[in-house]
Amino acid sequence: MYLGGFFLAIQNLTLHPILGRIIEVLAIFVATFFVVKLITSLVECVIKIYWLNYHRDNSNLEQSIDALLPAIRVVIWLIGIIFLLDNLGFNISAVVASLGIGGVAVALASQGVLQDLFSYFSILLDRPFELGDFIIVGDYLGTVEYVGIKTTRLRSIDGEEIIIANTDLTSSRIRNYKRMQQRRVVFKFGVLYETNSEQLAKIPVLIENIINDTENATYDRAHFSGYGAYSLDFEIVYFIESNDYTIYMDAQQKINFKVKSEFAKHHIEFAYPTQVNYLNNLETNQNNGNGNKAVEIPL
């Protein structure tokens, strides 16, 4: 307001053309500066209000917004500078054309960097993962610790830092285990062929009771799935109501201990790789007419 009043007051004075032009240029500079600052503040205010109202509990989104704001400021200032040059009488078309030619040269020279930069903005906006998420990218897996303009850093299970280019991330299939609400677990085992039908029928019931008594586990099914090379095979499916790998392993361990205990009570034995060889005794064959003898050899 003060700037506008001062500029209008100056217009009523009779000044030297050069002095008048200097004052006009200064007024355009100052006006552009304050307008750009005002627009920048308004945009930041709107974005932060949106975050406070809809995603206040999401600290990762706050980090994404803080990373995005500098880019927004740069864009607004570039528009402000173009507006300023236009008002100062420069040929904006020629300037933009020259910038375009220079931009092409720079883009060709820094193609990889620009690809990573655009991939960075894609990650911020699309958010396929966030800080603290456990992800698998190809042969690499780890917890996301940092998302930068060019690279993203993971902390692997073994402790080393894995640095992956953002372009590789956006062009790969990412498996995000942090967002897994429920873990489906399938495990199999086999029992001896000598197991009778009554014992086989008990196994699915025993498994169901064991899983139902296990914390964080939800039973799905247990079936006699088929006849193996040396065992009668069973397939069991259940769910873990958590994405925590340690909780899953604790539950699986309890199930394994309980299955071993219950099978011992019901005299059910697990199968192990074996091979049956039939030996022909020639002398016995001549005397008794049957010389076949079965020998079971563990593998």
Automatic annotation (TrEMBL):
Gene3D superfamilies: 1.10.287.1260, 2.30.30.60, 3.30.70.100. Residues 72-111 form the Mechanosensitive ion channel transmembrane helices 2/3 domain. Residues 185-270 form the Mechanosensitive ion channel MscS C-terminal domain. It is a multi-pass membrane protein. Its main location: membrane. It holds the Pfam family MS_channel_3rd. Residues 113-179 form the Mechanosensitive ion channel MscS domain. This is Small-conductance mechanosensitive channel. Keywords: Cell membrane, Membrane, Transmembrane, Transmembrane helix. Belongs to the MscS (TC 1.A.23) family. GO terms for biological process: transmembrane transport. One of its GO terms (cellular component) is plasma membrane. The keyword Transcription regulation does not apply.
